[in-house]
Amino acid sequence: MSPHEPPFRPVHACGLHRALFGPEPASGQAEPGRAAAASGIEQACFDRSVRVQDDLFRHVNGAWLKHTAIPADRASTGAFMQIHDRIQDQLLALIDEAAVDSQDGEARQIGDLYASFMDEAAIEARGLAPLQAELAAVAAIADRAQFGAWLAEAVGAGLGTPLALHIGQDDRDSTRYVPFLLQGGLGLPDRDYYLLDDDARFGEVRAQYRAHMAAMLVLAGEPAAAAEAAAQAVLALETELARAQWSRVENRDPVKTYNRCDFAALRALAPAIDWDGFAARTGLAGRAEWLVVGQPSYLGALSAQLADAPLATWKAYATLRVLYAYAPFLGRAVVDTRFAFTGTVLRGTPENLPRWKRGVALVEGCLGEGLGKLYVARHFPPAHKARMEALVAQLLTAYRQSLDTLDWMGPATREQARAKLTRLVTKIGYPVRWRDYRALEIRRDDLIGNVRRVRAFEHARQLARLGQPIDRDEWGMTPQTVNAYYNPSMNEIVFPASILQPPFFDADADDAVNYGAIGAVIGHEISHGFDDMGSQYDAEGNLRDWWTAEDRARFAAKTGVLVAQYGAYEPLPGYPIDGALSLGENIADNSGLAIAFQAYQRSLSGRPAPVIDGLGGAQRFFYGFAQVWRGKQRKAALIEQIKAGPHAPGEFRANGTVRNHPGFYATFGVQPGDALYLPEAERVSIW
């Protein structure tokens, strides 16, 4: 768990890209989405020296890009983080109110958790003392059986081990919960960071990772020479794990990653693991007779490493896992050492976030719905939800009309697609039933204990789902999360309250910009139900092939063109976008924009759109879409996104999408010779 991100995420969340977060522009720069009241388009950010036909992204955002610096404590900045930072200020005010001693219940928990993080003097005075029991337990491991016992305990404690356990809906039967066992435990963002030898960047990162591991072990009391040797051994061990892990593209296949294994099968697959002990120590014993294994070949390779790699290396690995899991909550020496690698080396960020922001993020990660309840009561007008419901209805109608007129889909598949769209559930703003934290103990004077208890509380909550009916009211994000997602097992789209503000949604603006911004987001999330992964789930949320072979082949041909299109884009020299990894998001971006434009045109009911601030309706639509993707990133963070993320960088989410849309060509007169022009035969239209 990190104080920068929520510790628990939905299994199937396919949300908009969070890596584009960044703070607001420096004072004196226009704040995106706020300056223009009527059109909702902020023309002060335009660079009119760039033709819209050549580069929509820079035409709309060029002046902002030129004059906005990425703050020292950020890896990126842009439209997403504009909202995020505003919300952070609002959350801090709510937390400060909750910190009053007279409060009780959830408010008291929120205030006490934040206070425990902000008590730097007490944290420094304790040093590593709160971790001594865990570190001593690792040091006392005398054989592989004892290490196996530690590993199982660590999986349940959420220490980021080579195995990850979570409870989710059964992909084959969405009416029940089952345990999933997945690969994990690497200290670098992706297997390529370990395995690519022809990239100087990754070689440098590996060297700095080795030095970082040694520095962390020294902080834990290891002599320098021994720490260096241990770090080298752990890097070699993680490299072998990375070699065995499935790629991110392989992990996008829901059929190949669904492998039902009972404990007899697990013993045959990974004999070095005591599966009876694993079940007992993780809490699965008596609750589950089988698990879904995501990557069976990796599990076999892990078993071999558990049997063959030196025990001393595994113990050093375990020590580092304990340190990593609690590093953000320890004294300055550990915090700074850890950030120097995870923040500066991996993402290029010179400075850590101010402590108060890290404290707010911790509360958000641990008591997110409790904080969300306060946020919604103070900052989410009911009128926003009503208008969003109307927009969603318009987008669904447009999607239904599009399904009815697709020329590449046959009637049998079309009928199934319509049924899925009809059954789609929409959640807006906040959950109808809030999470209950009353059983969670939070102490004002025990930060590490609080983190430990939060993890145990969440693990117990997950286990308790086994054998219970599906909670269809549950949310995978908090209301204050600037994001949205589609969940294929629930067949639902979810829009937290916080995304319903400029530049995504402007209650004071004309409809055009809202259709181009939040409308495209709505269309994006609906489209995830019909992308290359979501389309493999039926109306009930079950992994089932409901397509005819002919229609699936035609769909694959269209998406193959999209893979090639995006694979030709190179955000940095030598770092092209992975068209296969980003395929689902690119389908959603392209289809979402197309459906949003169709819905906007339908909303006009044949009337001409008004001209506002000198801009026609279609212009405002596309400008609204482009200003949502306003952002810039540090080079290291951009490389990480390209290698480890499913989303294309914002520039290509704007430009790459409109190149396929006939409305963009008609609105701006795009012709052969213009940089954004694609011959009609090369354009992709799916939904």
Describe this structure in words.
- The protein has 687 residues and is of the alpha/beta class.
- Among the domains are: 129-329, Neutral endopeptidase , domain2 (Neutral endopeptidase, domain 2, Orthogonal Bundle), CATH 1.10.1380.10; 382-423 and 502-628 and 635-687, Collagenase (Catalytic Domain) (3-Layer(aba) Sandwich).
- It has 26 helices and nine strands.
- A hairpin with a 2-residue loop joins strand 2 (163-170) and strand 3.
- Helix 8 packs antiparallel against helix 14 (332-347) and helix 17 (382-405) packs antiparallel against helix 18 (411-423).
List its salient traits:
single chain; 687 residues; alpha/beta; Neutral endopeptidase, domain 2; Collagenase (Catalytic Domain); 7% strand; globular; disordered N terminus
Could you provide a short overview of the structure?
The chain is built from 26 helices and nine strands. By secondary structure, the chain is an alpha/beta fold. A hairpin with a 4-residue loop joins strand 7 and strand 8.
